[in-house]
Structure formats: C-alpha cells, structure tokens
Amino acid sequence: MKKIIITLFVISALAAAARASAIVGADVGYLTDSKEAYFSSRIGYELAVTSNVSHQLEVEVGYTETEEAGASADLLPVTLNYRVQGGLDRGFGYYAGAGLGFARTRVDGVSIGGPVRLRDNSFAAQAFAGLTYQASPAVTLSVGAKYIRISDVNLAGTTFEVDDDVALSAGISFKF
C-alpha cells in the first residue's frame, strides 16, 4: 500500500510541475494461457504532446482470479507505466508502452486443519500495444494486447511459478 501511495504522489508532483492532463482508463480482457478474465484500470498524466504523439506516465492496477479444487486464487499486479499514444487518420491511432511494479498473489482454501490463506508479493513487468479510436476530444476507445510477466511466488515455503500470459483487451479512457 505504501508503494502505491508513494507512486501516486510522485506522479501527482510530476503532473503538477508539467501542467499535464489527467487520463483515467479501464480495460476488460481475456488471458489467453490461463483462460481467465483480466480487468485493469489506470490513472495517469499526459506529460507532453509532440507531433500528434502523446507521452504519458500512469499507474495501472490489474486483477484476475481463478478457482480450482476448492481453492481460489487472485493476482493483483500494480505497475508504473510509460505509454506513447499517437494519431493516424480519421480518429484512428495507436498506443504502446511498458511498465514495472509488483504483483500480490493471494490463495484461499481449506485444509484438514481449517481455512488456509496464503499471500506473497513478487516482481511484475508488462508490455502492451494496440489500436485506438478517438470518439471525442475527451474519450478514446482501444483494443490491444498486453504481455504480463510475474516472477515466482513463495507460498507456505513452496515456490510456485506464476510465469507469463497475454491479455487481449478492449478499453476506454477519458482525458480531463
């Protein structure tokens, strides 16, 4: 939680110094390897616009969950991203970027001794790209792909490989 607050504070300070525009967005997607839904939301700032290209810094929080054999697990990656977004023609454009951060893994289940709750944090990285459509000066629609890499987690003394996945997603963002 401290990391999120510090990161938001740094972004806010940078945005105030740069007199940047705030951008809020959300995506709904599908993880192709684990075959689960993936949701993400982000808040960021447009730091600079040059030649129809926007440079953005953002904090993104993702979420996915799965249930198997009576246990439920969820994964919550939090990353600080750099995003570049440009316009092409007739409202269409592109975006690409990358981010680094951490992921919280939580597993809840039941054993002979009662409820089991396991948690761990690990390194997270992602890269993403896609196409955009500028529906209005303040609203952008997008479709794209995101490569997500989560390092191994240690739960109850055992190391588990979380590994990587690709999310195909559609989203919307609002510029203020």
Q: How many individual domains?
A: 1
Secondary-structure content class: mainly beta
CATH topology: Porin
**What does the largest sheet look like?**
8 strands, antiparallel, barrel
Average of pLDDT: 89
**Distance from first to last alpha carbon:** 26 Å
What percentage of residues falls in helices of 4 or more residues?
under 10%
Furnish the topology, listing elements before pairings:
Blueprint: H1 2-18, E1 21-31, E2 36-50, E3 53-68, E4 71-87, E5 92-111, E6 114-134, E7 139-150, E8 153-155, E9 158-160, E10 163-175
Antiparallel strand pairs: 1-2, 1-10, 2-3, 3-4, 4-5, 5-6, 6-7, 7-10, 8-9
Keywords:
elongated, 1 helix, two-stranded antiparallel sheet, mainly beta, 8-stranded antiparallel barrel, Porin
Written overview of the protein:
By secondary structure, the protein is mainly beta. It has one domain: Porin (Beta Barrel). It has 1 helix and 10 strands, in the order αββββββββββ. It has an 8-stranded antiparallel beta barrel. A two-stranded antiparallel ribbon has the order 8-9.
